[in-house]
């Protein structure tokens, strides 16, 4: 849909200004003993997965306002991610949600993934709603359900997800449970945890040895009195009981307001149990807004922990899987995803600029103001030329959102798929 030469044509009028800005910033950074080119390479290497359910408009229980041209099947979803990857070079994988994305034409899909330079990142199970023809209901939970049959059904669904993922060379199963209770006394809190642990162990046993399980936590919603896995501590304890291939997944929107998420990230890396990330933005809870849109400083502080741990020889954390998990209610989903990736890369770039030697010294000396100033220095650096250079080096567009609009991509998608096409999945 978008040829390489078309992207180069769109970059052409912006090149002179970009080069000026990049050289200016490179000079300024070299005076701080920082190599801009090295930072750019780290940005080029950073990849964040796009979930199949983020390619169509999201909504709330009050309504959904589709904008047309949404992908109608897995092939079209992969196409959309391929398009994003062409524009920013940073979205090389797609996460599947079962049952919506059950692969049918395996050979065809593999060929398509190869052509678009994409891989499957993970498969996400869904036991938070009932599917047609399902024998047991998940109304009162899935892996924690009091009924043995319901638990077995949920276990089997997760094992089926692994099989679907294996067909496309995925290696990660992500489990998020809606299980919990709405009223005091409704659920035996300890027994619900133990049943969940037992069910997860059965899935873990069935998982190939080169696969990873990511366990996500969430303090509330859809259950409001209690959730079975409400916090990182519960998720961590489950992972500890399962084995080394189970790790904690941090979803930025799954915290109560004002939670110090960066500290959680630091702790989990210290314990070698940070397995993955779901990026989004939150004002009150699981709002699924554009990541970094309202709290860019928090996103920077999170990346600061990631960079700090990556440089610490004493930390042995598994490779962290990054994914965007947002809903796009009022924006074009593809534009929103391009913005999200840009915010992520900006936060990462800023974290790479932190003067760590000076920061450790200030921390050791309890020089509070100096330590804070060092963080602010990095955060307030305008890193946009670095991010643009990373896009350019990866063969992408200097300004992905502008290129997306100039190329008239949404209009083309509407023409191909229709004004009323609706994407599937949650
Ligand atoms: Mn999530």
UniProtKB/TrEMBL annotation:
This is Sugar isomerase. It comes from Hymenobacter telluris. PANTHER family: L-RHAMNOSE ISOMERASE (PTHR30268:SF0). GO terms for molecular function: isomerase activity; metal ion binding. Keywords: Isomerase, Manganese, Metal-binding.
């Amino acid at each position: 849909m978008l040829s390489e030469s078309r992207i180069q044509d769109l970059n052409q009028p912006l090149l002179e200004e970009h080069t000026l800005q990049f050289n200016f910033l490179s000079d300024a950074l070299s005076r701080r003993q920082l190599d801009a080119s090295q930072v750019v390479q780290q940005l080029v290497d950073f990849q964040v997965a796009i979930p199949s359910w983020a390619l169509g408009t999201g909504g709330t229980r009050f309504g959904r306002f589709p904008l047309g041209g949404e992908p109608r099947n897995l092939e079209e979803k992969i196409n959309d991610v391929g398009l994003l990857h062409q524009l920013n070079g940073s979205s090389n994988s797609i996460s599947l949600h079962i049952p919506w994305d059950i692969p049918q034409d395996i050979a065809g899909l593999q060929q398509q993934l190869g052509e678009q330079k994409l891989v499957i990142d993970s498969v996400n199970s869904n036991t938070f709603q009932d599917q047609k023809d399902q024998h047991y209901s998940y109304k009162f939970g899935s892996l924690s359900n009091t009924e043995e049959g319901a638990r077995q059904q949920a276990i089997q669904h997760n094992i089926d997800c692994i099989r679907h993922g294996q067909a496309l060379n995925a290696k990660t199963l992500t489990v998020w449970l809606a299980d919990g209770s709405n009223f005091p006394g409704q659920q035996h809190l300890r027994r619900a945890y133990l049943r969940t642990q037992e069910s997860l162990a059965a899935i873990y046993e069935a998982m190939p040895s080169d696969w990873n399980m990511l366990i996500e936590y969430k303090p509330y919603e859809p259950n409001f009195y209690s959730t079975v896995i409400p916090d990182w501590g519960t998720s961590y304890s489950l992972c500890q009981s399962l084995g080394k291939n189970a790790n904690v997944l941090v979803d930025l929107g799954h915290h109560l307001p004002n939670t110090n998420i960066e500290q959680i990230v630091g702790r989990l890396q210290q314990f070698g149990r940070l397995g993955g990330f779901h990026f989004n933005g939150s004002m009150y809870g699981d709002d699924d807004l554009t990541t970094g849109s309202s709290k860019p400083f928090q996103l920077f502080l999170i990346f600061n922990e990631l960079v700090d741990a990556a440089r610490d020889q004493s930390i042995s954390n598994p490779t962290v899987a990054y994914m965007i998990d947002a809903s796009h209610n009022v924006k074009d989903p593809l534009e929103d995803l391009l913005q999200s990736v840009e915010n992520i890369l900006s936060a990462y770039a800023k974290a790479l600029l932190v003067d760590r030697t000076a920061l450790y010294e200030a921390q050791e000396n309890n020089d509070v103001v100096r330590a804070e100033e060092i963080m602010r220095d990095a955060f307030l650096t305008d890193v946009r030329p670095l991010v643009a250079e990373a896009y350019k080096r990866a063969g992408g567009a200097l300004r992905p959102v502008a290129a997306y609009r100039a190329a008239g991509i949404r209009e083309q998608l509407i023409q191909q798929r229709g004004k009323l096409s609706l994407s599937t999945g949650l």
